[in-house]
Model the fold of this input.
Amino acid sequence: MKGSFIYSALIIMFSLVFNSNSIMAQAKKESAKKFLNRTHMIIGYAKEVVSQHKVYTGDLAKACTHQKLARELFKEGKFKGAVYHSHRARVLAFEAIKANKSRPKPEMQLTEAEQEMVKDIPIAAQLDAEVTVQKDYTDVEAASEREDELK
Done:
């Protein structure tokens, strides 16, 4: 009797810990998904600005490449890496916007929650080294279509 009580208590404790970890993982997934979707919006805006003003620096193509890697990492369940590369994509999209004599909209800035997500982000050179910017990956519209897969 005493042994079955201990066994039951252990099972309950294990299930509570497992459910807690599952809930935390789901929250990380949802936060990362929201981060990637907001970056998609920013890249779309950068595409509009670059198309209108015609100043091509290569930053928009690099942003798309980082965002592509972020999506792949997200699909693999590597949410922290996905957020880091998505953040790098945002920075590059902002550079493309600025090069075209425009400004990012105020709502495009990092939220407090997003700032917390990227507080330990690796340096840009390290993230850039993880991606190979392919010369043929400059089709921003195709990149935008692939972004819709996350929605």
Q: What stands out?
A: Helices lie at 2-53, 59-75, 79-99, 112-117, 124-129, 140-147.
